[in-house]
Amino acid sequence: xxxxxxxxxxxxxxxxxxxxxxxxxxxxxxxxxxxxxxxxxxxxxxxxxxxxxxxxxxxxxxxxxxxxxxxxxxxxxxxxxxxxxxxxxxxxxxxxxxxxxxxxxxxxxxxxxxxxxxxxxxxxxxxxxxxxxxxxxxxxxxxxxxxxxxxxxxxxxxxxxxxxxxxxxxx
Length: 171
Hints:
Layout: E1 7-9, H1 11-18, H2 22-34, E2 40-42, H3 44-54, H4 61-72, E3 80-81, H5 86-101, H6 110-121, E4 126-128, H7 132-135, H8 139-148, E5 155-157, H9 159-167
Parallel strand pairs: 1-2, 1-4, 2-3, 4-5
């Protein structure tokens, strides 16, 4: 039997899960039903973004949701946090730079480009993203950049698309 695909989630998706957003919860339920053994990774930049939000001095809703997300990664969500060896960081940074230089993301969206590059380096098949910049990236151009860096072609999909495309087939 073939290995299940690797999945990854972005920061916004984890915040949405922590907020009990229906789309995010439905998306996770469908993934668990359709791909029960597929690992779901939480990438280094995602963990760093959550930690940055959680360490703010205010008591904002986003801070509380980031703390909840960090506390929920392993239990109850069962996601796998990952890290990279130093050489992997260099590959990620160079790939992220190419993604931004290729016009797929604005130059200031450094973390988004890092998350995509980390996904590709980790051999992620599907990156679930609630982020407006990432979910609107043209797949063909991204695929060309990732393949040019000898990395896995990673598809980016918003939770609503997963729910919409697979909901009818779950009943």
